[in-house]
TrEMBL record:
SUPFAM superfamilies: Riboflavin synthase domain-like. Pfam families: FAD_binding_6. This is NADPH-dependent ferric siderophore reductase. GO terms for molecular function: oxidoreductase activity. Residues 16-114 form the FAD-binding FR-type domain. InterPro entries: Cbr1-like_FAD-bd_dom, FAD-bd_FR_type, Riboflavin_synthase-like_b-brl, SIP_fam.
């Protein structure tokens, strides 16, 4: 996706896209996890489970964020943001408050959810909490076996519980998921049945790549992987 474009092109595309969305409510789940409920005319948007919208975060910059849930009749959609403070997107989202208006695109992307698959292992970090929350109702309703693995800053270790997530393990963010040997020894690989699971890997691109390599080498499961951010790279 294009993460940067000239201001006049952005203005022109935005005017063609129709009305902007308004911040209805914004709440900090932890000091660095912010949940925002937006309102506006979303009737022409296409929603898919786990799809990501592009948000205009400055005159010239655009960033991807996962839509957690939507109510088309009421014109409401929700997103969970990691306020990491390292980029223009994070800093802009931190400033958002009730009544602010902004451009949010229709969500798009690869569908990470297949109702026919029995087991799901979903791995990610703070940027993946929205994806996890979007998947949870479907995983429960369709009675999948599922487990979430999160790699989180110490201050965010309770965020999954505060967001209502279930069946999760929170690991400290200290490089564990860059260690192939350590990943191979994770409990999920020791329990029968998980070899045929779908593995949805998102978040830190380096961790995603390492986890994916372990799964590929062991020829375990089907892997759906997408790095959401990469150290040193702007606007992945
Ligand atoms: C499909 C998709 C869905 C996504 N969904 C979400 C979502 O729902 N919620 C969410 O918060 N993010 C989500 N992201 C990730 C988000 O788009 C990136 O974190 C993005 O880089 C943030 O933009 P920025 O301007 O703040 O930082 P950038 O300008 O893009 O990056 C500047 C620097 O900040 C650092 N950085 C970027 N992200 C992080 C981070 N999370 N933690 C620590 N350092 C970081 C990097 O070192 C980078 O060099 C998603 C990404 C994709 C591709």
């Amino acid at each position: 996706m294009i993460s940067r474009m000239p201001k006049w092109v952005g203005d022109w595309l935005e005017s063609a896209a129709g009305p902007r969305l308004t911040v209805l409510e914004a709440a900090y789940i932890t000091p660095t996890i912010k949940k925002i409920r937006f309102q506006g005319d979303i009737s022409k948007m296409n929603f898919l489970i786990g799809g990501a919208s592009v948000i205009r975060v400055s005159d010239t910059d655009y960033r991807n964020y996962t839509v957690v849930c939507q109510d088309i009749e009421k014109g409401i959609l929700e997103i969970i943001f990691h306020i990491h403070g390292n980029g223009v997107g994070s800093r802009y989202i931190d400033t958002l408050k009730t009544s602010d208006e902004l451009y949010i695109s229709s969500p798009r992307g690869r569908a990470p959810y297949d109702p026919k698959v029995k087991r799901y292992l979903i791995y990610g970090d703070e940027t993946s909490l929205g994806l996890a929350c979007s998947l949870l109702p479907f995983l429960k309703k369709n009675e999948h076996h599922f487990h979430f693995y999160f790699e989180l800053d110490e201050a965010n270790k309770n965020a999954p519980r505060l967001l209502g997530l279930e069946n999760f393990t929170a690991f400290p963010k200290n490089g564990l998921f860059n260690n192939e040997k350590w990943i191979k020894d994770l409990p999920v690989f020791q329990v029968a049945g998980w070899q045929a699971a779908n593995f949805v890997l998102t978040g830190n691109a380096t961790s995603v790549q390492t986890f994916r390599k372990v799964l590929k080498n062991a020829t375990i499961g089907k892997v759906i992987a997408q790095g959401y951010w990469l150290e040193g790279k702007k606007g992945l």
